[in-house]
Write a sequence for this structure.
């Protein structure tokens, strides 16, 4: 039987971090292996993203009247995290198009500095009343220009 390499998604975290948020691993975030579960990583990313918007005077449903939808999600798992550990979730932006961008996440264990995961979500700005994508709001572009 011939050995073949499994294709891997490669995520390169941008140079400039725009926002950081700290969260601890809760007991409900653990899986059967007694470490941070993959679905909990997504929830922690969501919390950090919501905090990023709040810190910039916005919400996921109101960026100059537009909301966001997730077009895609990719995660590279790098290390385990365990109950009680403090995680630092860094956020960066890149890959802008007319109606969206990629939001990148680097999740680090504060105690060890170990990278737990690197991830990205494809954000599309969306008018929920019209049910259609819209241009990236100017105020959001201003945040990205700090890069």
């Amino acid at each position: 039987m011939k050995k073949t390499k499994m294709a891997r998604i490669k995520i390169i975290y941008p140079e400039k971090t725009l926002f950081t948020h700290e969260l601890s691993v809760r007991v409900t975030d653990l899986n059967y292996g007694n470490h941070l579960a993959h679905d909990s990583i997504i929830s922690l990313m969501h919390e950090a993203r919501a905090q990023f918007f709040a810190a910039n005077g916005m919400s996921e449903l109101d960026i100059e009247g537009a909301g966001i939808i997730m077009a895609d999600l990719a995660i590279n798992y790098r290390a385990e995290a365990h109950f009680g550990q403090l995680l630092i979730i860094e956020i960066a932006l890149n890959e802008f198009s007319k109606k969206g961008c990629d939001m990148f996440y680097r999740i680090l264990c504060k105690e060890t500095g170990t990278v737990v995961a690197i991830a990205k979500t494809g954000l599309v700005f969306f008018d929920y009343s019209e049910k259609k994508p819209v241009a990236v709001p100017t105020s959001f572009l201003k945040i990205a220009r700090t890069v």
Remarks:
- The chain has one domain: 19-144.
- The longest helix spans residues 38-55.
- The helical segments are 38-55, 138-144.
